[in-house]
Amino acid sequence: MQEFEIIVLATGLVPTARQLIGWEAYQQSGGSVDSIAATFVASTMFADKYNNGSPVDPNSPITSSIASGIIGNALGTAPTTNQVNAWVNTGLPVVDVFKAFAFGDQFSADPEPHSNIPGGGIDPFPEFFQIYGLATGNLSAAAQSFDGWWQYEIGTGSLASIEAAFVGSTMFANQYNSGTLVNPNATITSAIAEQIIADALGATPTPEQVSAWVETGLPVVDVFQAFALGDQYSAYVASHIFFP
């Protein structure tokens, strides 16, 4: 997901699925993450965000103003003079300082708050991919509909309504209920619970695991959400996204 981090820190915008797929294809054809970073550092968007609109040579030495902007946006707090000077004194090129923060632990852990999401919504990336993948069993197709659902979510929708839409879909019915449509707010059944757990965890659940979820009396959509956004399935999606 380094492309995602590069784009967010370089532009302040959440990338579209089309951008991510395009850059992933570029990498798969022999391009490098370093060249992607250099392209964005040399872009008009980076210039506007970090250098008052003046184009930046990625290989030029880092300046105090650019360093201050990168550090502030990556860490979410204004840097101290000592922090900025320390990076300027390294004499590193702009692109290397940019990569150090774009791929640093703090920014990588959660780049989304640093991006400008129209309408104040929460970008459902990668949550949307987890919802789509678990609901349909087809993670590789998620990118094709990501843009539309993202625009819906940042407009008037929500992740909860996206989850309900998928649980109520024909795709979910085919995957979990022998083709019969499922009411997202209906109480979870053992058959649906068993298949959700198996698909999310990659192993057949024990009868005790299934019974424990059925006995909660939760609606299907809540059980689905628990597994779609759970740590184990989230890790699976993170390791497979854009690599169908």
Could you explain the architecture of this structure?
The chain is mostly helical. The chain has two domains: 2-116, serine acetyltransferase, domain 1, CATH 1.10.3130; 127-240, no CATH class. The protein is built from 16 helices and no strands. It has helices at residues 2-11, 17-28, 33-41, 44-50, 64-75, 81-88, 94-102, 105-109, 127-136, 142-155, 159-167, 170-176, 190-201, 207-214, 220-228, 231-240. α1 (2-11) packs across α7 and α9 (127-136) packs parallel to α11. The longest helix has 14 residues, at 142-155. It is elongated and about 60 Å long.
Total beta strand runs:
0
N/C terminus separation: 14 Å
CATH architecture of the largest domain, by name, is Orthogonal Bundle
Low-confidence stretches: 113-124
Mean pLDDT: 85
| Helix-strand sequence | HHHHHHHHHHHHHHHH
Query: Which structural class do the helices and strands define?
Result: mainly alpha
CATH C-level label of the largest domain: Mainly Alpha
In short:
62% of the residues lie in helices and 0% in strands. The protein is mainly alpha-helical. Helix 9 packs across helix 10 and helix 9 (127-136) packs parallel to helix 11 (159-167).
Layout of SSEs?
Layout: H1 2-11, H2 17-28, H3 33-41, H4 44-50, H5 64-75, H6 81-88, H7 94-102, H8 105-109, H9 127-136, H10 142-155, H11 159-167, H12 170-176, H13 190-201, H14 207-214, H15 220-228, H16 231-240
Helix pairs in contact: 1-3, 1-7, 3-7, 5-6, 5-7, 9-10, 9-11, 9-15, 11-15, 13-14, 13-15
Tag the structure with descriptive keywords.
244 residues; mainly alpha; serine acetyltransferase, domain 1; 0% strand; elongated
